[in-house]
Design goal:
1027 residues, alpha/beta, Fic-like fold, eight-stranded mixed beta sheet, two-stranded antiparallel ribbon, 41 helices, 16 strands, 54% helix, 6% strand, globular, disordered C terminus
Length: 1027
Amino acid sequence: MRTRLEIERFKSAGWNSVLENSRQSYTLTDQETFNKAMDKLDEAAEAIGEGIIYDPETMHQLIAEIASNIDIDLSMESEAVSDFSTQLLIDIYEINNTGEKEKKIEKALELAKYIEHKIIHGHDIVVNDKQTELSVLLTNFALLATKLSADETLPLIDKTRELGAYKRIGLDNMRALSRTVITGTIDVSAAESVIPLSLQKKLKENGLDPKVVPPLCKDVYEALELTTDEINILKDNEKMARLDVTNLITKTKAEIVQMIEGNYNEAMNLAFKVADENLLKSHEDVKQFLGDIATIMSDGIVDGDWKRTHDSEKFKVYTRVKDLESQLDDFSRQFFNKLQDIKRIKDPKKREQAAIELAAWCEYRVNLTDHFLADGCGKTSALMANFVFMAAGIPPKSMPMMDRRNYFNFDVVPTTNIVINKKEHSAFETKELTTRKVKEWERWLRHYKSSFFPQDYREITCDNAWSVPSVTLGQHLETMGSKSKDEDKYVIPEDANFTNLHHCLRGGYEVAELASAIGAPDVQKLITYPLTRLNLFHTIVYAETELKTDTDEDIVEKVRDVYRTLKGSKVHGTKFNTWLNQNQEEFIRDSRNLAELASQGEAEYAEQYAEVLSTIQQRYKSGEYILGNHIRYISKPIPHDELEKDLVALYGKENLLPNSTNPKEIILKDPEEAIAEVAKRIIADRAYQEMSNRFFEHEVEPLISEAVDECEFERLDIPEPDERVTFMMAGAPACGKGSAVATVATMAEENLEIEWDNTVKVNTDTHRLMISHPHITGERREFSGTLNNHEAGLLTDLAYSRLQKKVNEGVGPHILIDGVNMSKERMDLGMANSGKLLLTVVTVPPEISVERAFSRGQGDGRFVPTSYNLSKHRQVSKNFFKDLQGAMGKNAEIILFDTNVPRGVTPKRIMTADLGSRSITIYDKKLFSEFLAKGNIDVTATCSRDLYMLPQDKLDESYHEKLEEMGFLKIRYEEDKPSIKKGTQFTIFKESGKQKDKRHEPHLGEDEEHGEEHEHRRRGHRGTHHK
């Protein structure tokens, strides 16, 4: 028998493994139970060591008993458990019969890795939520059964634990980084072919994306009922020709996932062995290692050699096949040398930084530029990056989920590979390509590093226009989920919160859990609000779409008055807010009942519940969703009729909440029951949201209307549909849209007799004023725009939805759309039902915009994250022609202004176009080229000199051909005259016959984002009055 001290050492090492590697942290077995289970192992291990237990059946029974100590029921009828038990017994006897100690230790490590693989990562032995605990117990049991000492075996436990961490985190990263989804789905862009129309139709009918090649699995193929021709077309596909389609279509999706994950685990075992034993001795070893990993990863999926044998016509950045071998040699040589350099770095932080840079370089070469492999470059490059951390002795690096989703952002992937056709380049061209290649690599490295090192915003001082921080709601929620392990970890200031999380009915941790469970990219859709908060939203939207308003301050005051009037009113003798709260309680109760019925296959949400439950179960089984990662304990209310019973006897002491102040809930420790509860919460929230929407439309909005009348506010006059005008502003932040609004307002009044207060003004910045407060968003103003953005955007969407309905009914008002992008939905709103769209786009060089935005933020607190600002410059320019194309031939005009002018100087016209008559006039070719070239800017730039790769990227002179392709019939080039009178920019102003020149034209100043307030003359109103 081993000494008590040795047993205690095993206990301690085992418990540390459980704590560090448990995926389902909320279901952890408590330490006392774990230690009791460990106490029972020594005697059984001693019996095996002495040869007393020697038959597989007894071993099977013994393993089942070990599992039962932590409440795991391993079926005695399970063939997989029986095979595992037999193999375990064989391996233990083989170790004990090995004479050489080093060989014994080596075999013991392989045994520990085998147990970890079968229990945690395998698919044969069903353990549900306690894989880690059982794996650690069985590993300790097996090592105790060997005759090795604690000093010899405990390091093996540490190594196994370390490998488990690399596998777990690496698999999470690999799922997201791989361009081929783990289920076998292939993006058409990667497939390099067009899916036949017949197949597209079948995909759409079966709820699949018609733009994506279907998952290569039996269940999908049988559902699609593919013809032989369709299968042959897919087989002939350049990508799929290398896939073993015949093999894959005989397997279900679950079997394919099992095969891919099995390949991954085998490859990880090899990688860990190579790193642990330092087996890379030369660059030839690196090449062999890469080939071995690629071969294992593609086993059963790709036939033939692991190297790519075809050139890509779509992704021209990939190294050509004729140069692939030389580049593979170059990669192997550099990788080996870089890895050796990292190992020599003594400072842990510097070594970590160097390892992340090598990992980024590895993915850049293996996947994004050279693309060495026949298939699975994404998965293999992610595993090679993980290997770098192993070999450097650095803990595995987990990339935040929200960042992994945006990993292959095409704003940062490379487009240059100097190896391609290098002999055809002149010396000057080679120099330019080299510069571009270096800059693209630097851009990729900044992007890659930012994923591993999220900013700690407590340490940021916002004193530089190029470093205004940005944080997403998803990043914040993920950080909340990990704070149990790192209490000093934040991505927003400690005194701040997102306004939607502050006001939602569920807590932030619970919202994070629901978002993770269903994989929701738009967290805002999961937010449920108290009816009092929704009342504020609906009051804002009603007021700004129904009332005459002049300025931002005007609409804020009117909303405040209407809101106070409502709050002070009574409904059926009950105070307004009390009435809202009563209805809220009813909605919550009814929505929970509907969700419960749905879980039983009844009521209107049954189909939705089944879909949500299936999604969560799949995400849980694949490891994409870690149950209880954000809420340590999933709980549910105890039924009312059970509250008086003996709850300890009914549910068990371990299932009762330890908080005695909340005795009406129990903890759900069964994963299936807990997942069902999560699904019910999502359905209950959907039901609540729909009830609330109907309630406000039918019951509250009439009360808001009455409050408006009580306040005696003047309502909008509604024009005839064919006289309705929508003024749309577009351009990146701090480009002068506010001042452009002032210019357009004057022109509208003087040329169309549209009084500006009779125009609906939907502005997200105005919404921020009404829904945000420093006690929520914190003292640091540079974060407020990020923290209130979701709710401000929600109000904008609600307002446009309401306006769309009014326009469709023929009672749409004049509208000002003050936004950033030339949104197709907004443009269509302006042109709908005979309306006229007048689009004004403003532009300045991005570096000017960044400085303006920062200066403005220092003044009024409206800081704009630098990365967001640059991305909007890029989007507006890159999508310019595509956005115009959708309005060609319709009742729309556009003018493009350059507002980079001194104060007091009229902004310069760059281009005007009448899309209805398909005519365009360009006044400044250079400025137009510079505007379009902003589609080339680097959104990760941290200073103005990094905005463009090369000087020629600052101009895009290919626009004439594009304009002809778009269908413009008249393309004219004229010089803009500085004496242009106001009103001549848009054809509609010319045709109105009412042009006047009674005032000096307002100018767009550098820091006048909102412009000056103007005294508007009152005119007679046209149209009819509508409520």
